[in-house]
């Protein structure tokens, strides 16, 4: 079975789920806490994993992860972790349960509250060794299974990025079979998350040709070769599912060089709890206006992206993404997602403070962010 | 300064040498052994590093690394390591001193002899945690600064590949300024080593699209964009030197999916001690015949390689490599390097047993290897 090891161990194959037992044994975990959400349980995916669960290990499940995980949910899971005497975590789901699992793992050995560890507050140095964690993605999008980061709505109301090499999962089990039941709308939204990672990482000004090569390969796979549209059209297409799972992995390996203003804005909108906005959908909607804003500051990089996407020479990447969004059934604006003009002021503040703003090709001013949010509302 | 972290910490920039002190401090090393060779010392490169050496650390140097490092040299360095009470290693040089440093580091905490750890003898499981090691490459070729492996002529006369995640250097300092004085002939030979890594890794049948993308980027950089020929033509071209150092890094990240018959044959020839053959030169000479041998077994992968090299559609990769070798002043055959027909029998045996044979697109038989060596002699 393919083992892909760059930042961590990644078992990547249809059926890879059966490796969970061996990985838990390798890590010496005797009482893992399963972190997941009710959607994963309802879709029968949790049962798919349970089929391969080692007989001698208890099945202790926290399924209360909200769509944008909160510190309150992290603490609820931590309480279960402690009362059950857990010694490790298996996080099963999209980005939310895996990010929640990473945060539970952090607080199992580090003091509360989470805000002190936020990257934007230079909290990385306070993070040391944590317990073992295995990530089992059930969407092809975030790539959090190979990344240093977790994104949590902390108790102070911020959507905080917390990152440290110690938070990288000890192993990722990437089994495209677990994504076969993902509905078309979520396939589209999470897929566009991966696409946005590839594009924003490639446009980050940091020098990292290795990450750049990985990012362009993710775009070829997902867009030029059509895996994203095929996976949306036919969820049971295992080859398309596998290619999208690889593109998600590639997006996250690429964004070791940072992301950009799409993510800053997406995090700012994602923290509006009553709307429960999907991170990938937000990225998809925000990508075209941010691409137009960044265009004068990226040299010939948009040509490279256009070529990787399979556009004709000189093709308009922003327009191609808008057209792709339409074909995928993604809303045309933040307004169509329920965001209203009165939220803009607060979103501008949060976006400006977001750590992804630092690696946008040019630093957007508050006025720039105001204009970008304004343009995205309708 | 760019920090590139996939398998390990890589400081990559002109002037990165000044990071050595901070890395030694981070690793808690108080008495490092510098492993290098006399060529590095004679070229003044050791002085370049010493300029940035932390004042409070001793300067303990083993400079007796032979061109193809032997277990005897490893033991001589280990004796110095022990008598000086060393607690870490800084390996400065081409592949030989870094590979020697890795082996010294292994034997500093593990029992002799080295042969028991050989990958081909399933020795990887015997390798556990080793002491801290920083790799400072002075050629752009082997990529051993980011790889799991070391290649040593063990006391039983084999050119043994010994590999373990524990042998990955804790940090690599990739400073293209240290390669500016490398003579054109060695620039060519080490550069062709990196090129061979990219090609053989791409042709390995293991599934790893991430490694594949990195491999093709290495070929674009070194061949299509001309960095290798520019570095050979003008050794002081820092951009070409930097791109070749990146291509070397990329080659080694790519060969996490394995190498092929070129390396099996090159290792078999490289162990003939009296000839002191250069590994990169051997790879360059052996690459065209092995490409022709593999061609029927690689699907359309040679077209991808041709495109990455900038050849016209349908271009002959083997012929293009031969032509490149000629322009670089690389010998046309093993015969021209001093290898004679009476060595073939023994080389066939060693090549067949080499671990790289396992990831060649098709497993060459002894007769295949005999024919390939025969064709390479003239």
TrEMBL record, chains A, B:
**Keyword annotations from UniProtKB, A to Z:** NAD, Oxidoreductase
What molecular functions are annotated in GO for this chain? Answer: alcohol dehydrogenase (NAD+) activity; metal ion binding
Question: Does the UniProt entry include the keyword Transmembrane?
Answer: no
Name-wise, this protein is Alcohol dehydrogenase 2
Membership in a protein family: Belongs to the iron-containing alcohol dehydrogenase family.
Start and end of every Fe-containing alcohol dehydrogenase-like C-terminal domain? 187-375
Return the SUPFAM superfamilies for the record.
Dehydroquinate synthase-like
Q: Which reaction does it catalyse?
A: a secondary alcohol + NAD(+) = a ketone + NADH + H(+); a primary alcohol + NAD(+) = an aldehyde + NADH + H(+)
Domain Alcohol dehydrogenase iron-type/glycerol dehydrogenase GldA intervals: 9-176
Q: Which cofactor does it need?
A: Fe cation
């Amino acid at each position: 079975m393919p083992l892909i090891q760059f930042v961590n161990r990644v078992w990547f194959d249809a059926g890879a789920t059966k490796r969970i037992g061996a990985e838990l044994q390798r890590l010496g975990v005797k009482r893992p806490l399963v972190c997941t959400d009710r959607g994963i349980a309802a879709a029968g995916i949790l049962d798919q994993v349970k089929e391969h669960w080692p007989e001698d290990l208890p099945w202790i499940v926290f399924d209360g992860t909200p769509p944008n995980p909160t510190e309150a949910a992290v603490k609820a899971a931590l309480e279960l972790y402690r009362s059950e005497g857990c010694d490790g975590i298996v996080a099963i789901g999209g980005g939310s349960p895996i990010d929640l699992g990473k945060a539970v793992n952090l607080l199992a050995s580090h003091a509360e509250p989470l805000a002190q560890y936020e990257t934007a507050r230079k909290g990385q140095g306070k993070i040391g060794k944590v317990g073992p964690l295995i990530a089992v993605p059930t969407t092809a999008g975030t790539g959090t299974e190979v990344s240093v980061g977790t994104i949590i709505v902390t108790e102070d109301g911020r959507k905080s990025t917390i990152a440290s090499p110690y938070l990288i999962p000890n192993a990722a089990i990437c089994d495209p079979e677990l994504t076969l039941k993902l509905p078309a709308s979520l396939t589209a939204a999470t897929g566009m998350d991966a696409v946005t990672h590839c594009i924003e990482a490639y446009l980050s000004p940091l020098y990292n040709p290795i990450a750049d090569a990985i990012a362009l390969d993710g775009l070829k796979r997902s867009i030029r070769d059509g895996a994203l549209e095929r996976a949306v059209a036919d969820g049971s297409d295992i080859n398309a599912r596998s290619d999208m799972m690889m593109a998600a992995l590639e997006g996250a390996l690429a964004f070791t060089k940072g992301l950009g203003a799409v993510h800053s804005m997406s995090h700012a909108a994602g923290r509006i709890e009553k709307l429960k906005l999907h991170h990938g959908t937000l990225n998809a909607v925000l990508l075209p206006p941010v691409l137009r804003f960044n265009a004068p500051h990226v040299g010939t990089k948009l040509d490279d992206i256009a070529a990787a996407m399979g556009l004709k020479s000189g093709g308009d990447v922003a327009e191609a993404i808008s057209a792709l969004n339409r074909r995928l059934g993604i809303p045309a604006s933040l307004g169509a997602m329920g965001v209203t003009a009165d939220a803009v002021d607060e979103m501008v503040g949060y976006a400006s403070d977001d750590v992804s703003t630092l690696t946008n090709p040019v630093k957007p001013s508050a006025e720039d962010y105001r204009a970008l949010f304004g343009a995205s509302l309708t």
